[in-house]
Amino acid sequence: MNIWMRDNMRCVNRILAMTAILCLPARGQDTLPGYLAVGLKQMQETWHILDLFAERVWPGWNNYRDVPFLIAYPNGVRLLVGHPDPPKNFSAVTGLSPGGKGVFLDRSQEIALPLKAPLLGGGGPVSLGTWRGKPVRTVSLRLFYLDPELAERRDSLERGSGKVPWMPAALQYASENQILINVHELFHCYQETVFRSRHGNLRYNTDANYAVYSEIEGLALEKAFLTVPDDSLKIFLADFLTAREMKRKSMTAEQQAEESGEEVSEGTAVYAEAMLLSLIGRDYAPEISASDDPYYRNFAGADSYFKLKLEQLRGIRGETLESRGKSYTYGCFQSLALSRLAGGWQKGFFESGRMLDQLIADVVGTRSGSVPAEENSLKVRYGYDALLARHAEVIAGRDRALALIEGRKGRAYVINFKETGEYLQVKANGPSYRIGLITVFPNGIDSMRVAEVTLRGTASPIIQDQIYYLRWVDTGPGEEGYTIQCSRHEEGGTYYNAIVRTGGFTLTAPKLRVSTSPGRVKITVLSKVKVE
Amino acid sequence: MRDQKILCCALIAAATGFSEAPSQTDTVHLLLERSRSTQFISRPPDTTEVWIGENAVVVGTGTENILFRYDLNRLFFLRPSRGVYYESGLDSREQEEQPADTSIHAKGWEYTPLYDWTVEDMKEEKRLQGYACHHYVARGEADYSERTLDLWVTRESPIRLDRYNDRRFYSHIPGDPRSEELLKAFPDLYTSVIVSSQEKLVPAIAPEGTIGRRIILIERKQPPPGVFDVPGTFKRLETYDEYLDAR
Known about the structure:
The structure holds two protein chains of two kinds. Helices cover about 40% and strands about 20% of the residues of chain A. Chain A is of the alpha+beta class. In chain A, a hairpin with a 2-residue loop joins strand 5 and strand 6 (about 135-145). Chain A has helices at about 5-25, 35-55, 150-160, 170, 175-195, 210-225, 230-245, 255-280, 300-315, 325-340, 350, 355-365, 370-380, 385-405, and strands at about 70, 80, 90, 105, 120-130, 135-145, 410-415, 425-430, 435, 440, 445-450, 455, 460-465, 470-475, 485, 490, 495-500, 505-515, 520-525. Helices cover about 15% and strands about 40% of the residues of chain B. Chain B has six helices and twelve strands. In chain B, strands 7-8-9-10-11-1-2-3-4-5-6-12 form a twelve-stranded mixed beta sheet. The radius of gyration of chain B is 19 Å and the shape is globular. Chain B is an alpha+beta fold. Classes of the chains: A alpha+beta, B alpha+beta. At the A-B interface, strand 5 and strand 7 of A face loops of B.
């Protein structure tokens, strides 16, 4: 065969091969339920937005399309996109490749819980499976249904009582929120490529001193953000630094480092959101529409979302018991200040291992007066006495609540909701206080619901701990402090359609397990929907 | 002193049913394999090498070696890849640890499960690594966590049980299922060796995971020269933090 013939034969073979492919029946395309299709569209739009703006948000941020997404839904379904080697239980969805990525579903734990948009939720980077011998860093999100009608009702109730909700209802359930969360988590995955935090998460319960000066820090950051001349901006940033110095008197060196470290990781991720919002109003043409996602409004009024960052700062700075949560907004507003005063500060920032507040100190320069003089000036200008009175009252309430809980002796009832996969939304009777991962309800709880699981509380003190558990101590005598009514029960303590009644709560669940020991009754909710 | 130790070993051997004739060396060489998996990731098995001598024990995890010198009452942490080590008294690591912060600032963050253990004799036997093993299942329940251990244990291996059940030793074996509470609830473990275990852990918040662990080699063997010594070329670090930073 000569060269001409060989080339022609190749050409013919290609044509035949193409014809054969074209004559094949179209490969089947799986149909996804609506809520999953919306999730994919939001992912695609996230990538599209980052294609447009990521480089301007943070120079060098270009790995956002390389990071897989894992989304867990309340019905047990898990959606995985873009993973090079999906773990077992995930099956490929044919005919779908958003952004050229493979789509995989794990329905092995699916339950009969109807789902619809809007769904919203957060998470963070996790290692999911391995590829070429290395763990695959993946954005893992857990989504929940957000009832628009309920959000609207709460909104109007709050407005009716004279309060201004920090986030209007319509923005709460808008899909833009989920896209911003996607952006936030993808930014964390970028951070991981250029730096590794030397410090752990901040785990610090506040005291009155911390709460007062932390609020002053927040006030100073707001003033810095709103002021126009750069000289005034520096004055407010100096206030921020002085307040920080005063605040940290009750913190260990490690806690201080953890706090600044959180501001670097979380604060810059919120800053990425904020910068995106500042850019998106100008040059943005979405790739999805309301027909793809009925709760997506093309970032119309992007400035409303940007203003929400300021509202978050205003809302959280006065929270007496909050510590770590403030690092998100405080870090963001320090970053925004740096963008005004030290253009290009992002370049090499993560690699340098420096903290945002250190850069702020560099920008502000040397102190003008002595520490005591600055502290006194700060106290006068920011209304220290009133702040202290307010925060001290909350701190005292928290300490009383803790003493009350620690003083309760008797048989413990632990209710384990972990298998429902949902975070507990508890309606309290009166105030509640967070201490570490514990929330104390000194006046008990009114109620809580997870799908078909309901719990009615009493005025008896109870705690929520480790996210998924309620713990109530029966201080009464005797062991038989509870009754169970059910449609059926199995050996091993499993009950169907059960109602557990105690002096502290009544729990109704489609399926649960009870295990007892002299000091504890443990109730594990096994299903949040009816199983028989 | 040496005679006392031999007598002690002989008594333990007698108590545990150990019937092998003493070999030329008292040193036991162990290879332990561990595999871990969670909902998110399955890791390939890793191996820990252990030498148990009369006066010293060394645990090598690949990245570090931990050397117990019972004769010197010293503990050495060695990082061969960096050529560094840190030294302390055998018990001083615990003494050096800062007392727990009990202030309000630290409350509620840490959750350490206190398991109530129940142990079920499964009344099954099989031979593993040539030793007759008995099957037990230990179940631990705490307020917000559960732990189940499927154990195959033997009373007839040549491992020195005083070393093997030394808390300082087993706390440095990655994935070792032994704990103070378990040993209290299952005192037979003091006179036995766990040859294989499968652990299911349901933590308070994280997804549940499993850890498989088994002894893949037990042999009496002459140790390589210097295995119980700190190489003279290694640099001594002053603090444990320096040692940690040398990772």
